[in-house]
Design goal:
A 6-stranded antiparallel β-barrel has the order 2-10-13-12-11-14. The protein has a 4-stranded antiparallel β-sheet with strand order 3-9-8-5, with no helix packed on it. The protein has a 3-stranded antiparallel β-sheet with strand order 4-6-7, with no helix packed on it. It starts with 16 loop residues before the first helix and ends in a 13-residue tail after the last strand. By secondary structure, the protein is mainly beta. Among the domains are: about 70 residues, Beta Barrel (conserved putative lor/sdh protein from methanococcus maripaludis s2 fold); about 70 residues, Beta Barrel (OB fold (Dihydrolipoamide Acetyltransferase, E2P)). A hairpin with a 2-residue loop joins strand 18 and strand 19. Pfam families: BSH_RND_rel. It comes from Formimonas warabiya. InterPro entries: BSH_RND-rel. Keywords: Membrane, Transmembrane, Transmembrane helix.
């Protein structure tokens, strides 16, 4: 009888728990070392990037003005000269020239009242001394300096709205119609100001205010009348030390100086508050330091401060830095 050989036992693969454990530990160690390395280089790299990105401003000495443009109309002592006859006017002096009383300003060439109808010239003389303007606008009899307290504000406002714009010199002379005017250059002119709602400071009769003309010249005006019309203030001011003004156009733009500040000036965006006090970040020997300032005045994106010297460098993009951070 044949012998049956017993089946060979299948050998199970041996597990290696120790080797796998070492692998996990190695991975964790590498991860820890990587995190630690990143932590070590983070701040130096960040500081290097910040140093490259930080923008600086330089404190300057400036005069900041807060101004508002206001449409205005001039009131001057003006004498209208009417044409003595129909015809063509031939000026003998240029616009703006100063003339004495009785001086011939020009001639009106017209036809003589004779059978031959010859052309004759009639002299036009200055009735008073002053500056010659060939641009009468029919407002000379309404806007008069000696009638400031009797001005009909609503009527004048409508007249001014209708008369906006320049006035052309009359191409022809019409008997009895305005031909030119003589402006008194020795008397201070006045200005008619429809005051915009909400604009400060509010005009007060007898008080003065600084204004700036379109050419940059600044002077003072003293308010002689302040009235209210249709919920709007209308001020009439006397211009002191008036510059040479346009004789061709009664209308102009004045800039009301609402505030003026002079001193060390920096960008408003550089201000950083600390415990409710304003200051700026500055580079002090390679370290970001906060320096307190006092704001004297602000206009748009600039401020006048004390606490800094002209030429001081300060940090503009303050969100990139913090106090005590190295900047070198």
């Amino acid at each position: 009888m044949a012998r049956v050989r017993p089946k060979a036992k299948t050998r199970k693969p041996a597990t290696m728990p120790k080797r796998e454990g070492r692998t996990v530990k190695n991975k964790v160690l590498v991860l820890v070392l990587l995190v630690f390395g990143l932590w070590l280089v983070y701040h130096p790299v960040k500081n290097m990037v910040v140093t490259k990105m930080v923008k600086y401003g330089t404190a300057e000495w400036k005069v900041l003005e807060q101004s508002e443009p206001v449409a205005a109309a001039l009131i001057r002592d003006e004498t209208v000269v009417a044409a003595p006859a129909d015809g063509t006017f031939e000026p003998a002096v240029p616009e703006g020239e100063k003339v004495a009383v009785g001086r011939v300003i020009g001639y009106v060439q017209t036809q003589a009242a004779t059978s031959s109808s010859d052309l004759v010239k009639i002299a036009v003389k200055a009735p008073r001394a002053g500056l010659v303007s060939y641009h009468p606008d029919d407002l000379e009899g309404v806007l008069k300096p000696d009638m400031l307290d009797k001005l009909d504000i609503e009527k004048i406002s409508q007249l001014l709205a209708d008369k906006q714009g320049g006035v052309s010199a009359p191409p022809k002379a019409e008997r009895g119609k305005p031909l030119l005017k003589i402006v008194d250059n020795l008397a201070n002119p006045y200005v008619y100001l429809p005051y915009p709602a909400g604009l400060t400071p509010v005009p007060v009769k007898g008080k003065s205010m600084t204004v700036k003309f379109s050419d940059g010249i600044k002077t003072e005006i003293v308010f002689r009348e302040v009235k209210k019309s249709n919920d709007q203030l209308v001020a009439i001011g006397e211009i002191l030390d008036a510059p040479d003004l346009d004789l061709k156009n009664r209308f102009m733009t004045l800039n009301i100086i609402a505030g003026s500040y002079e001193g060390v000036t920096i960008a408003k965006e550089a201000l950083v508050e600390k415990d409710g006090r304003p200051g700026v970040f500055m580079d002090r020997e390679g370290v970001c330091r906060w320096t307190e300032v006092e704001v004297k005045g602000s206009v748009k994106d600039q401020v006048v401060v004390s606490g800094l010297d002209v030429g001081s460098r300060y940090i503009l993009n303050t969100s990139w830095v913090r106090e005590g951070q190295r900047l070198d």
